[in-house]
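Shipment paperwork, digital attachment
Item: protein structure file
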Amino acid sequence: MASAPPLTTTTRPAVRWGWAEGEWPSSAKARWALRLLFALPFAALSAYCAQRGYLSGEMEVLTRNAGEVRDGWADHLAGTHYAYPAGITATLAAFPVEWRRPVFAAIGALGAGSLSLAVLARLLVHRIKPWLAALLYLAFLTSLPLWYVGTQDPSSMFALLFLVLAMDGNVRFAAYGQTEGGFQAGLYLAVAFYFSPLALVYAGMLLLVAPLAAIGRRHQEPFSALPATLAVLAFPVVAVALGWTYIVWRLTGSAVGWFDIAWWRSLFPQSAGPAFTDAADFVLRLLWHSPLFLALGVLACTRGAAMFLLWLIPPLAPLVSVWLGLPGARSVSFLLLLSVAVTSSPARATRPWAKTLLAAAALAQIALNLAFPPEVTAFQQWYETVL
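Attachment content:
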């Protein structure tokens, strides 16, 4: 009796895309050791700035709010509305006044070291040519915003770290259908909220782009899965935002108290029209100063509409956040575009012309970083103090 021929199946090659698919180093102890090692230059620079008497506006506000939170402990936590962003302010409040500046510097250095290791690990996981990896990493390290945010604004640094991780997870989720990436993106956005309200803006951008990206790959999954897609991205960050609002309401009697202290007063610092014009001008200068991110856009176009739509998120989110006047929006935007470009470009550089484009863009990025630092007031004042 003849037997049926064996069935043959073809499987799509797995896309190597994402932090979870290739941790480097493989040992958690080694990763933490490298994070601390990479944090040392930032800690040293922060100590030098303190010796020169420089005090950033972010450091002044956060340390003052930490004092308000600590003073309110004896009054049924009445100072809770000063605790946002809770990831930094609540930590500082646990220490006496004389310890807050060193703790502030240590937290910022740890965040910068963690981001530096994450970027390097991504380059090594992709196993690109060493010379190209060195150029891309040098483009990252020579960025002035990296050293400013890493030494003077730890809240924005940790928000940036988790936003970069969320962007990576969303790309794997929306463009390649990897469910794990979507869950990671949602969780990273939720953690980022405790460091900056910018997480809400980026979450909104991701929710707008997710349906469009799904349309771009409609042959891979049904549209009936779209509500679940949006829920995976939105639920964590919405839950923590509502949870924090409830805590503040229960302890202070004002549900919008943390808005008032943290950033509600800064919304629309000008009238809406001029503020939007200023934000659009900022984004144009941001793109001019980001040739590596523009090169990533060229590579994204070759991968279809879904990838191009995802590429639009980093510049569109700063447009909204700067228009609203959210704190840290300008300083984070420069570094976010650069971090996304460095970590995402190697995965798409599969052809010789793409590698050449990345190398040229990385050289241009290094030249711009050194010769024409971003024109942000805080950066310039800090740069003059350091020199």
